[in-house]
Amino acid sequence: MKLLILLIGLAYGNVFDGYTLYTGDPDYTTYLIDNDLNVINEWYADCQPASMAYLQPDSTLIYPCKQEDVVLPTVAASGGRIIHYDWDGTILWDWICDWEYQLHHDIEPTPNGTILALAMENIDGFRPDVVLEIEPDEMHGANLVWIWKVSEHTGELDNPYTFYENADYPQIDWNHFNTVSLNEFGEILLSSRNWCEIYVIEWGGSSDILYRWGNPENYGRGDDNDKMLEAQHGVNEIPIGYPGEENLILFNNNSRMGMENDTSEVIEFRPPDDYYIEDGEAWEPTEPIWTFRDNFYAPKQSGAFRLPNGNTFVSVASAGYMFEVTYDKEIVWEHYGSNNTFRAQKYGLDYLTLYGDINGDGSVDVIDIVMVINYILDGSYITEGDLNGDDVLNILDVVILTTLILGV
Question: How many alpha carbons fall within 13 Å on the CB side of residue 232?
């Protein structure tokens, strides 16, 4: 095992060449920086982030933040407002939730243009969590496409596929979900701080829990000694093609009420094939594949993401600390944000497709206009040049591109 880790470390030991996205001060600014800490772009907001912003391949930014008039009071990491910016900071969509649900913590933009959001409902003082799928509608509207409610998936203690209906967690904040993400199979990953568990559920359906891990005592399959997680955040699946593909990775805060601060850690583990579970047993695995500890600690938020070169990008919320660590546990890059840096992410240099950047040089200028004209004269077509999305390259695309450059 040590030899394997050494070989992986030698193969992927360099800093991943990419852009880091994080929100910090002043004024809730979201920065995109390179490895040398040069600011590539920045977006300004007038509201506090609920978790972290999401950069889209088309160079736009989706930013979840706190609404002024909340639907429910005293909700941790309260959100309720989602803003969509273009590269230049122009607002494309700005929605404030006026439904009966209080958004909080995290969102997940989906491939089909909707947004998954964590929220809380109120049932006569009992406040379990829900997952909403939101479809943007014009500048300030939204449609509720789908909803999954914890309250509709409760049952007896010995049922691992439901939430124990008499679980002794605070009624006002029963689950405290803090992360939502999609895996490669179109399933939703959730993290519950209070239950010290992560879950996999079906996206778009109404099924019970497909898989859970971290605290089998919640479904009567063990005791406190079997707990693997403590107030964890940031669970996500390692993408296919990355070292560790299809494993899950998360930030385990190790924050315990009434106890001294512990050291937080990053944990990587592999769910069983088809989420198989033995009758009367807890879901595997019984131990992680990889962990990393290095005297860092955060009582809230934070996250970890595997990078394409095998390194892991970690953000520690309490200090706004971000770092990149190799598989053999060498920190090769680090940076400090601010108290508003709850979670951060790193993207590859080839992730962005800047709107109007036809030649991919990172800027929009007269060369891009010349290229579009040449494609039109040749009777050729490229998606990057079709700025109005009508599947045809013509003078309208040249006009749009010229307007972009002139800023009019």
Answer: 30
**At which residue do the structure tokens 């992560």 appear?**
198
SS (H, E, C) the chain: CHHHHHHHHHHCCCCCCEEEEEEECCCCEEEEECCCCCEEEEECCCCCECCCCEECCCCCEEEEEECCCCCCCCCCCECEEEEEECCCCCEEEEEECCCCCEEEEEEEECCCCCEEEEEECCECCECCEEEEEEEEECCCEEEEEEEEEHHHCEECCCCCCCEECCCCCCHHHCCCEEEEEECCCCEEEEEECCCCEEEEEECCCCCCCCEEECCHHHHCCCCHHHCCCCCCEEEEECCCCCCCCCCEEEEECCCCCCCCCCCCEEEEECCCHHHCCCCCCCCCCCCCCEEECCCCCCCCCCEEEECCCCCEEEEECCCCEEEEECCCCCEEEEEECCCCCCCCEEEECCCCCCCCCCCCCCCCCHHHHHHHHHHHHHCCCCHHHCCCCCCCCCHHHHHHHHHHHHCC
Q: Which residues, in sequence order, are bridge partners of residue 22?
A: 31
Quick one: 160 exposed, middle or buried, by C-beta within 10 A (0-12, 13-18, 19+)?
Answer: buried
Q: CA-to-CA distance for 144 and 381, rounded, in angstroms? A: 36
pTM, whole model, 2 decimals? 0.86
Residue 375 to residue 395: CA distance in whole angstroms? 11
Lowest-confidence segment of 99-108, 297-306, 355-364 by average pLDDT: 355-364
pLDDT above 90: residue 3: no
Name the token pair of 348: 């590859």
pLDDT in tens, 56-87: 999 999 999 999 999 999 999 999 999 999 99
Q: Which long-range contacts (CB under 8 A, 24 or more apart) does 225-230 make?
A: 226/282, 227/196, 228/267, 228/288, 229/196, 229/197, 229/198, 229/267, 230/196, 230/254, 230/255, 230/256, 230/262
Gap between the Cα atoms of 125 and 72, Å rounded: 11
- Let me know if 186 is exposed, middle or buried by CB neighbors in 10 A (0-12, 13-18, 19+): exposed
Sign of CA dihedral 6, 328, 251, 60: negative
Q: Which class for 18: exposed (0-12), middle (13-18), buried (19 or more C-beta within 10 A)?
A: buried
Cβ-contact 320, 52 below 8 angstroms: no
